[in-house]
Design brief:
This protein is α/β, with parallel strands linked by helices and 434 residues long. The chain is built from eleven helices and 19 strands. It folds into three domains: 70 residues, Thrombin, subunit H (Beta Barrel); 258 residues, 3-Layer(aba) Sandwich (Rossmann fold), CATH 3.40.50.12240; 85 residues, no CATH class. The protein is 33% helix and 23% strand. The strands form three sheets. Strands 9, 11, 12, 13, 14, 15, 16, 17, 18 and 19 form a ten-stranded mixed β-sheet that branches. Helix 8 packs across helix 9.
Length: 434
């Protein structure tokens, strides 16, 4: 039997403080008042002084409420019955389906020992050229999507969910507007992708503590599927909402704030979730792609700044496109040499020429006379943006590489692109007739 306490010393926001013994960090507790029973989680220990984050808030809870510690952390059910289901940030059904109770697993467990991890060796195909060709997503990689407010990062994640060549999609939504939740649900349902997906959704109207639980639940379920040999892609949106929830709770607890009011352990909190990305030897893998909004389009904001030190690159979403110069996949060289022998060459040559196109645009805007070479670059840059950078383009990797050769052939002569003749002799296309 677990000891029951009948006195709460202090209440602020959704945090209750009382004195208790033998309690562990992240342990669950039941808070029973005359209005019913709520769950809470231990978020701070100071000797026998225990701080509880109450999921449903403290409205109607009196200081004489009954508090019973359960002796375990937050748990969620795991089984194949999760597939196609949608849950709240408190692991309750959001889709009006039956509640699940079998195969309970802990959330918030430690990440896998690095010594037990396998070096990434396989790409995750998405059908998006700016990812597959230029910043390849690698299995077990952790990558953020940096974007300012208003950029289509949720539609991008939805497209990746539909097209990624993986076995299971785990979608974790934090602070979503209800319309965004409906967008994800309807998009996955109409395409049939919901059948291989599990969704944990916290909306802006839900208790703040559930926002913090979403990534833990998503990666806990992903880990179990990966141990079964599945290739799992975890999509999280938006990690800035997660960090803001941490900040709100830290302020309630009167913690000394760090940069811009965020808690001093922001880096550790983010890393604990991102480091769940792993490739298991003899089993499956977990790949994490997480949207991170940048307030004021400021990449030095604490959330993207800390994120950049943890992850293996980033996709930089700007003006509705994945920006080639702000984006980076640090692991792409582990796989793009195994796809097709011209992959790296096309990637390097097209980005180099696109950089020259950007310089030509600057010259044009300042009124400089355009040369014949500048004219070629302008034609090339417009086609590159329209046919490869546009996020609506949906083609396999090999077709994207072929399209790259076609664009180069239509805009330049073989000797102008800086590609070895052994490759141009094999892949160069005849010029288009239009």
């Amino acid at each position: 039997m677990h000891k029951v306490y009948h006195r709460i010393d202090h209440m602020a926001g959704s945090v209750a403080t009382l004195r208790a013994e033998g309690v562990s960090y992240r342990e669950l507790a039941e808070i029973t008042s005359r209005f019913g029973t709520s769950l809470g989680q231990v978020i701070k220990l100071d000797g026998d002084k225990v701080s509880l984050q109450v999921f449903s808030g403290l409205r109607g809870v009196a200081t004489d409420a009954r508090v019973r510690f359960l002796g375990r952390p937050m748990q969620i059910p795991f089984s194949d019955a999760l597939m196609g289901r949608i849950f709240t940030g408190g692991a309750q059904p959001r889709d009006k389906g039956p509640a699940l109770s079998d195969g309970l697993i802990d959330i918030g467990t430690p990440s896998v020992n690095p010594a037990r991890r396998v070096i990434p060796s396989r790409m995750v195909r998405t059908g998006i050229p700016m990812i597959d060709v230029f910043n390849t997503l690698v299995e077990s990689q952790k990558l953020p999507v940096f974007a300012r407010a208003g950029e289509p990062y949720n539609p991008l994640l939805a497209r990746i969910a539909l097209q990624a060549e993986v076995d299971v999609i785990i979608l974790g939504g934090m602070g979503l507007k209800y319309d965004d939740y409906l967008f994800f649900r309807d998009t996955l349902e109409e395409s049939g992708a919901l059948a291989r997906s599990v969704m944990f959704v916290h909306t802006a109207a839900d208790p703040i503590v559930e926002c913090i639980l979403v990534p833990d639940m998503a990666v806990a379920v992903a880990e179990q599927f990966a141990l079964q040999g599945k290739r799992v892609l975890v999509l999280l949106t938006d990690m800035t909402s997660f960090a803001d929830a941490l900040k709100e709770i830290a302020i309630t607890m009167e913690q000394i704030p760090s940069n811009r009011g965020y808690p001093g352990d922001l880096y550790s909190q983010l890393a604990a979730r991102y480091e769940k990305a792993v490739d298991f030897e003899g089993a499956g893998s977990i790949t994490i792609l997480a949207a991170t909004t940048m307030p004021g389009d400021d990449v030095t904001h604490p959330v993207p700044d800390n994120t950049g030190y943890i992850t293996e690159g980033q996709f930089y979403l700007q003006n509705g496109r994945i920006e080639p110069f702000g984006s980076l996949s640090r692991l792409k060289q582990l796989v793009n040499g195994k796809t097709r022998k011209d992959h790296r060459t096309i990637m390097d040559a097209m980005i180099r020429l696109y950089a020259s196109y950007r310089e030509t645009l600057e010259k044009q805007s300042m009124g400089f006379r355009m040369s014949h070479w500048d004219g070629k670059l302008l034609k090339y840059g417009e086609r590159f943006e329209r046919e490869l950078m546009d996020l609506q383009v949906n083609i396999p990797l090999e077709a994207a590489l072929d399209l790259g050769w076609t664009i180069l052939s239509d805009c330049f002569e073989p000797f102008e692109v800086g590609i070895a003749s052994r490759l141009t002799d094999e892949f160069w296309r005849r010029k288009s007739t239009d």
